[in-house]
């Protein structure tokens, strides 16, 4: 008698505890796991979709199913907005740095722009940050004159972009070279913030279509405020 055979007699013996339970077939286990994985992937196929992307699927997905994910995205947006405290690029001084940057970064991400107002690349980056700040008010954007932050900080290193989070420096970008040079866009900087952990990939999706936005496009809106802010460091 083969105890591994699928016979009625063996089933009776197994039910009585006389024979041990039959070992599951490895192929069957793998097939079941694959089916479960495919079902889970199908169920979660909309998990990372933005509201705009969900709207584009109206003809492909069930309305009730889509609405579940729309509601999730709206709730996530409400939660982000409930944490929103900022919305502008705030000038800070060296004595304020520890509190405004290091300490505050224990609770929120803080983006620091070290600038020199005579450097065109600094003006470009500041204009971009002025665009990003109201888009992501949960992030604290600040700026400080480079030589005020660090004595004799070389102009060749500016602009310097620092991203703080969890009470520590998470990422630094020296000059615009790594971001796109003088062609750096709002989307380029947003991607850098994703890389640093300050934003999620889905949060910058709307910027893809407007990635040509840069300082020149926002200069007229921000020029007066920037000049006033820079004067604070004279």
Question: How would you describe the overall organization of this protein?
Answer:
The chain has helices at 8-15, 26-43, 51-55, 63-82, 97-103, 120-135, 146-149, 186-196, 215-231; strands spanning 89-91, 110-115, 140-145, 160-165, 168-174. The longest helix is centred in the first third of the chain and has 20 residues, at 63-82. The chain folds into 2 domains: 24-82, no CATH class; 89-231, Glutaredoxin. 45% of the residues lie in helices and 12% in strands. It is an alpha/beta fold and 234 residues long. Helix 6 crosses helix 9 (215-231). The chain is elongated.
Largest sheet: 5 strands, mixed
CATH H level of the largest domain: which superfamily? Glutaredoxin
Structural class, from secondary structure content? alpha/beta
Number of strands: 5
Q: Which CATH first-tier class of the largest domain would you pick?
A: Alpha Beta
Q: What gross morphology would you assign?
A: elongated
Organism: Schizosaccharomyces osmophilus
Family: Belongs to the phosducin family.
InterPro entries: Phosducin-like_chap/apop_reg, Phosducin_thioredoxin-like_dom, Thioredoxin-like_sf
Pfam families: Phosducin (PF02114)
Secondary structure: elements and pairs:
Elements: H1 8-15, H2 26-43, H3 51-55, H4 63-82, E1 89-91, H5 97-103, E2 110-115, H6 120-135, E3 140-145, H7 146-149, E4 160-165, E5 168-174, H8 186-196, H9 215-231
Parallel strand pairs: 1-3, 2-3
Antiparallel strand pairs: 2-4, 4-5
């Amino acid at each position: 008698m083969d105890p591994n055979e699928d016979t009625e007699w063996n089933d009776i013996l197994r039910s009585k505890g006389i024979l041990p339970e039959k070992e599951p077939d490895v192929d069957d286990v793998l097939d079941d796991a694959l089916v479960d994985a495919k079902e889970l992937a199908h169920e979660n196929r909309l998990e990372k979709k933005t509201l705009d992307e969900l709207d584009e699927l109206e003809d492909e997905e069930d309305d009730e199913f889509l609405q579940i994910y729309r509601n999730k995205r709206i709730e996530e947006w409400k939660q982000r907005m409930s944490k929103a405290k900022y919305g502008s690029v705030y000038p800070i001084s060296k004595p304020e740095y520890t509190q405004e940057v290091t300490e505050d970064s224990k609770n929120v991400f803080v983006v620091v722009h070290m600038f020199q107002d005579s450097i065109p690349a600094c003006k470009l980056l500041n204009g971009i940050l002025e665009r990003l700040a109201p888009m992501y008010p949960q992030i604290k954007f600040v700026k400080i004159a480079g030589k005020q932050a660090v004595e004799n900080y070389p102009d060749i290193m500016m602009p310097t972009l620092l991203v703080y989070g969890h009470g520590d420096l998470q990422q630094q970008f020296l000059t615009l070279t790594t971001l796109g040079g003088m062609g750096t866009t709002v989307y380029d900087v947003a991607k850098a913030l994703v890389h640093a952990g300050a934003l999620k990939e889905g949060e910058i999706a709307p910027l893809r279509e407007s990635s040509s936005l840069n300082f020149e496009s926002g200069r007229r809106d921000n020029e007066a405020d920037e000049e006033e802010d820079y004067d604070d460091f004279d």
